[in-house]
């Protein structure tokens, strides 16, 4: 059992969730309430990582983050080290490839709030910020929760993109999914089987926990 | 009220994960060695012996030589590169990625490997393969990808030498590296494959079938060279030297590598 890889995967997933929670809240709410020219295009762009093969997406990210790209060069100049083959590079890639998993359910969550409820809040003199905190977030919470759990679970399982952008550096970019692949390559079926089982268990617990939580929230709200 | 407790515990759980992972990264300063897949078992053993003898650790990353060469060009932070083909080292050296031209550390061999119960015979002359092909009894035959994996390139050369490359085309299954090719060859879904002698000799694989050496003059020699990269530190240097020590050479010999003369 490669605990380093597991802990690295959990850390990557936690960072991705932490960054995507505010992003999905803002973007999901914006896409749910506003209609504007080119909205379809924005929604399509958000969904793109879902349909692109991970290796294609990973290849683009590798090129986009590489030291010859503007992003890579900016990163090198700002932080004194490169972006690809580092944990930071993985986090950035992970944030991008999880966009559909985070924003879509969040958007659905906000869309489910009847417009009358928001109007009532505003008629009662609630500021938009207060309305967001007191009225919208509690109602959109199941959507946001789903978004975060999907992001978390998806990050644990992602393989192609992580391999492309991260290489397989123990303790830095070798996540549990890649460690499993490496073990299979090394004919160490036993370790691969144990690690796979642990990964399945964690994913299952994460998802079960969400259902349990959203059921509780559902009861409280009704 | 109860909700806020659950919410708090979720936050606390994430914080704990982030914290434990930061502590973890502090201990991961050991240099990373990028090693060709045919070294899978040999180098793991050498790294273990190195740790016992010196108390120092290296981290191993196994993969195809071609992939590693590309990753090094993109800036991958490896400190030692152990290639399966010296051509890749020469190119990296020419373009200024390595400290020097490195050292030859081994000459690899290829074998035909067939799983237990296969209708193929493990014979290095490839006569059994030729016969099975003629009789239409081959469904899948595994080699490493000859586009970027040195063992795949040598397998292709050997098959061309035997005149089997063209007829075998529809049945080839390509591994991303030689280790994956071995995986395919032994999966039970292929009649066999051409893989590294060093892998065939490992205890894990030896029990899963039989193998036979392909004549060394059927293909270009697998001259395996290693090199220190520009960012190599003292531990990487020590491991590089250790690779040339008697104990490491003994392990390499056990895995069927021909060693360069002192």
Account of the 3D structure:
Chain A: It is a multi-pass membrane protein. Chain A: InterPro entries: MetI-like (IPR000515), MetI-like_sf (IPR035906), ModB_ABC (IPR011867). Chain A: The chain crosses the membrane at residues 12-32, 44-63, 83-103, 192-213. Chain A: Part of the binding-protein-dependent transport system for molybdenum; probably responsible for the translocation of the substrate across the membrane. Chain A: Keywords: Cell inner membrane, Cell membrane, Membrane, Molybdenum, Transmembrane, Transmembrane helix, Transport. The complex is a heterodimer of chains A (222) and B (262). The mean pLDDT of chain A is 90. Chain A has helices spanning 3-33, 39-51, 54-65, 70-79, 87-97, 99-111, 115-123, 128-157, 160-166, 176-185, 189-221. Chain A is globular, with a radius of gyration of 20 Å. With 222 residues, chain A is an all-alpha fold. The longest helix of chain A is centred in the last third of the chain and has 33 residues, at 189-221. Chain A has one domain (3-221): MetI-like fold. Chain B is an alpha/beta fold and 262 residues long. In chain B, 45% of the residues lie in helices and 19% in strands. Chain B contains twelve helices and ten strands. In chain B, strand 1, helix 2 and strand 2 (59-63) form a beta-alpha-beta unit. The radius of gyration of chain B is 22 Å and the shape is globular. The termini of chain B are far apart. Residues 22-27 of chain B have low confidence and may be disordered. Classes of the chains: A mainly alpha (222), B alpha/beta (262).
């Amino acid at each position: 059992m490669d605990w380093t890889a597991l802990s690295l995967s959990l850390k990557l997933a936690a960072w991705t969730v932490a960054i995507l929670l505010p992003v999905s809240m803002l973007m999901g709410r914006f896409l749910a309430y506003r209609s504007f020219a080119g909205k379809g295009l924005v929604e399509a762009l958000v969904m793109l990582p879902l349909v692109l093969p991970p290796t294609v997406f990973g290849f683009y990210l590798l090129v986009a983050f590489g030291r010859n790209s503007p992003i890579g060069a900016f990163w090198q100049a700002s932080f004194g080290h490169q972006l690809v083959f580092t944990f930071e590079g993985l986090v950035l890639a992970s944030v991008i490839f999880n966009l559909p998993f985070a924003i879509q359910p969040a958007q659905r969550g906000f869309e489910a709030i009847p417009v009358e409820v928001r109007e009532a809040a505003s008629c009662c003199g609630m500021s938009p910020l207060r309305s967001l905190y007191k009225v919208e977030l509690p109602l959109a919470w199941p959507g946001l929760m789903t978004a975060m759990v999907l992001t978390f679970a998806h990050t644990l399982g992602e393989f192609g993109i992580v391999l492309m952008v991260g290489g397989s550096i123990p303790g830095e970019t070798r996540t549990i999914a890649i460690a499993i692949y490496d073990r299979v390559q090394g004919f160490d079926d036993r370790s691969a089987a144990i690690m796979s089982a642990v990964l399945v268990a964690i994913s299952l617990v994460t998802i079960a926990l969400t259902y349990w939580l959203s059921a509780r929230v559902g009861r409280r709200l009704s | 009220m109860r909700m806020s407790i659950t919410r708090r515990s979720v936050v606390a759980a994430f914080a704990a994960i982030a914290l434990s992972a930061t502590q973890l990264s502090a201990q991961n300063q050991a240099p990373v060695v990028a090693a060709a897949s045919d070294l899978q078992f040999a180098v793991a053993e050498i790294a273990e012996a190195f740790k016992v003898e010196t108390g120092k650790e290296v981290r191993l990353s196994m993969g195809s030589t071609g992939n590693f060469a590309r990753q090094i060009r993109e800036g991958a932070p490896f400190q030692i590169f152990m290639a399966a083909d010296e051509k890749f080292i020469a190119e990296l050296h020419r373009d200024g990625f390595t400290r020097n031209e490195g050292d030859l550390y081994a000459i690899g061999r290829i074998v035909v490997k067939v799983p237990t119960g296969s209708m193929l015979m493990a014979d290095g002359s490839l006569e059994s393969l030729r016969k099975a092909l003629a009789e239409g009894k081959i469904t899948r035959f595994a080699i490493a990808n000859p586009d970027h994996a040195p063992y795949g390139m040598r397998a292709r050369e050997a098959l061309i030498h035997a005149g089997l490359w063209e007829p075998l085309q529809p049945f080839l299954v390509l591994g991303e590296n030689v280790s994956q090719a071995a995986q395919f060859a032994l999966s039970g879904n292929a009649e066999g494959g051409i893989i590294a002698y060093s892998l065939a000799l490992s205890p894990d694989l030896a029990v899963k079938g039989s193998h036979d050496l392909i004549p060394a003059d059927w293909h270009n020699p697998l001259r395996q060279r290693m090199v220190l990269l520009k960012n190599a530190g003292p531990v990487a240097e020590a491991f590089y030297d250790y690779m040339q020590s008697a104990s490491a050479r003994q392990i390499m010999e056990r895995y069927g590598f021909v060693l360069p003369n002192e």
